[in-house]
Amino acid sequence: MYNGSEFIIRELKNSCDERRVTFTRSRSGNKSDDAHVEQKTWSRVREQVGYLRYDIPAESELLNEVWELDRIFAAYLLPQQKLVEKTLAGAKATQVHDKPATPHKCEISHPRVKKMPAIRMNATFKRIRVMALSRQIMVLTGRLETLSAANGGTATNHLTQTRS
What is the number of other CB atoms lying within 10 angstroms of the CB of residue 141? Predict the structure, then answer.
């Protein structure tokens, strides 16, 4: 709707440029852009909590706990790769990515990160117990499903949702 360049806050754009963050947005009239957003939604959100509708405060509290634990899991344990270079040779595109690294590793190796924040992040990383964290997330999502079912929520699969 209002997503043209005239609606982008100049300060936000400048900040993204300074930090070398790729600034993207959905383009009006291009339905294919939504697939990239939905891919992220599926991989982090739907994979964790499914397709139930959560609309009561108790469910919201549990969701917030799940997202906090998932944030820790993703930031400290899930490596990511960034596109470094993309070259076109006729119809063939060649992509070069950097080495996989977790957001934590990228952050602490950045030259502008001060010593104390890096020490705190490393201390947090050392306290993480991967299996315990995974179990906590599973327990919370199980409680979330149970609570939703008790409040009349129904699980719907992806095909049911897209048809309605």
Answer: 20
Q: Write out pLDDT tens, residues 84-135.
A: 899 998 889 999 999 999 999 999 999 999 999 999 999 999 999 999 999 9
The phi and psi torsions of 94 (rounded to 5 degrees) equal -115, 130
- Number of alpha carbons in the 13 Å side-chain half-sphere of residue 150: 9
Quickly list DSSP for 54-121.
--SHHHHHHHHHHHHHHHHHHHHH--B--EEEEEEETTEEEEEE---B-HHHHHHHSTT--HHHHHHH
Q: Is the pTM of this model over 0.85?
A: no
CA distances from 136 to 9, 22, 37, 129 (A): 39, 33, 27, 11
